[in-house]
UniProtKB/TrEMBL annotation:
GO molecular function, one term: DNA binding
Record-given protein name: LysR family transcriptional regulator
Similarity remark: Belongs to the LysR transcriptional regulatory family.
Keyword Plastid: no
GO terms under cellular component: cytosol
Superkingdom field: Bacteria
Residue ranges occupied by any HTH lysR-type domain in the UniProt entry: 1-58
The species this protein was found in: Phyllobacterium brassicacearum
Length: 300
């Protein structure tokens, strides 16, 4: 429903090149270039910076891209309403989240929501944490659920809840007898960490630097479930938020111990949607449902 010029413009913005957009859209590159040139003439300003490694949006191009993404999603929402009954929640909710949240939490949320609205479907993308807000902004998903130290990419945050970080260990670990821990307590034991691109790793590194603690790191992994299994075997102490490991804890497979000064772990859990987008009822209802559930599940 969008004009071809805007569709081509968005694809070039997403991929970063006319040739890449041409291959994806099956449209001649010359036709795409003409449409983009026409847009630049219409707005009397460059929309892209032409660089050796590709095309990058100018500030004016960013504004147009934000408008076009919202317009594209609005058109899809209207079409969905026309095809279906407005008074019935049906359709697909597209979500981007991290592996730690996808393992159990998101599966439970989808199940509970579908118990009430059985005609709803979910398309869940597990991606690297830095890509979640980007996918929300570019309209690739409806909702992003992410741990964040900050939100540098402009998105609308439906709800932001501060979350603590806990040490995860086998129930027979010597430190399991403690009620609270310090980072120094962990120095004499093997630990397993997530990769440096995660907010969890970032806050742990900042805490260690501030306290002058050097951890005995025996495993680094981008697979959070693997880290939990390693801790379950007694291989090391791992780290997580309570919401990510609730099932492990309630089943008695692992124990979680908070830190004495957990405010140093300044991390939040965010529900993100596209800025200025008028959410369809389906997405809006699920985002509110998530906000309520997250508020009730943060504490151990």
């Amino acid at each position: 429903m969008l004009p071809n010029a805007l569709r081509y413009f968005l694809e070039v913005a997403r991929i970063g090149s006319v040739n890449g957009a041409s291959e994806r859209l099956h449209v001649a590159g010359s036709a795409i270039s003409r449409q983009i040139s026409a847009l630049e003439m219409q707005f009397e300003t460059p929309l892209f910076e032409r660089k050796p490694r590709g095309m990058v949006l100018t500030p004016a191009g960013e504004k147009l891209a934000d408008y076009a993404r919202r317009a594209f999603l609005d058109a899809e929402d209207v079409a969905a309403e026309i095809r279906g009954r407005v008074d019935t929640l049906r359709g697909t909710i597209r979500i981007a989240t991290s592996e730690g949240l996808a393992n159990v939490f998101m599966s439970e949320m989808a199940y509970f929501f579908r118990e009430k609205y059985p005609e709803v479907r979910f398309d869940i993308h597990v991606v690297a944490p830095p890509n979640i807000a980007l996918m929300v902004r570019e309209g690739e998903v409806d909702i992003g659920i992410a741990f964040a130290v900050g939100t540098p990419i402009p998105v609308h945050v439906v709800r932001r809840v501060r979350v603590t970080t806990v040490a995860i260990m086998h129930p027979n670990h010597p430190l399991a007898a403690r009620d609270h821990l310090t980072m120094a307590d962990l120095a004499n034991y093997p630990v397993a960490l997530s990769t440096p691109d995660t907010t969890l790793r970032q806050v742990i590194d900042m805490r260690c630097a501030a306290e002058g603690v050097l951890l005995n790191v025996v495993m680094v992994s981008s697979h959070s479930a693997g880290l939990m299994h390693f801790a379950r075997q007694g291989g090391a102490i791992a780290f997580a938020s309570p919401i990510s490991v609730r099932t492990w804890i309630t089943d008695g497979l692992l124990v979680a111990r908070p830190f004495v000064e957990d405010t140093a772990f300044n991390r939040s859990l965010e529900i993100q949607t596209m800025a200025a987008r008028k959410l369809p009822r389906l997405v809006d209802d699920f985002s509110r449902f998530l906000a309520d559930e997250i508020g009730g599940q943060i504490a151990l």
